[in-house]
Amino acid sequence: MIQHVSIGASDTWLGYGKDRVELSVRLSASPVPSDPSSGLHFCFVAPTRASVAELHAAGVAHGGKDNGRPGPRVHVSPTYYSAYVIDPDGYRLEVYCGAEA
């Protein structure tokens, strides 16, 4: 399993990754409203296809809405395996694994 850790932080910023910042999160002074027509979504890379299913199930179990069950997306790539959830705040989240089955 790849270990990811915080590799940079301040009072208003967090950098997360293994050897370099792979996800940067900044504090916002106010919530940013969800816009379903914006096309914005956040994609997280999972190490295995089983992890994709686990993260999708956890998202739904914690108040998210299914927006695409775990499965192959061969129209993207022969090995693209992903799942989609709309979180309780209305943001679209994707979890993806590119490993072969």
Describe this structure in words.
The model has no long low-confidence stretch (mean pLDDT 86). 18% of the residues are buried. The chain has one domain: 2,3-Dihydroxybiphenyl 1,2-Dioxygenase, domain 1. The strands form two sheets. The chain has a four-stranded mixed beta sheet with strand order 4-7-6-5, with helices on one face. It has 101 residues and is mainly beta. The protein has one helix spanning 49-61; strands spanning 5-9, 13-17, 23-26, 41-45, 65-72, 81-86, 92-97. The two termini are 17 Å apart.
What are the defining features of this structure?
101 residues; mainly beta; 2,3-Dihydroxybiphenyl 1,2-Dioxygenase, domain 1; four-stranded mixed sheet; three-stranded antiparallel sheet; 13% helix; globular
How would you name the CATH homologous superfamily?
2,3-Dihydroxybiphenyl 1,2-Dioxygenase, domain 1
User: Count of DSSP E strands?
Assistant: 7
Strand content: 35-45%
The first-level CATH class name = Alpha Beta
Number of helices: 1
User: Measured on Cα atoms, how large is the radius of gyration?
Assistant: 15 Å
Detail the poorly predicted runs: none
Per the CATH scheme, the topology name is 2,3-Dihydroxybiphenyl 1,2-Dioxygenase, domain 1
Q: Quick one: overall form?
A: globular
Ends apart, CA distance between termini: 17 Å
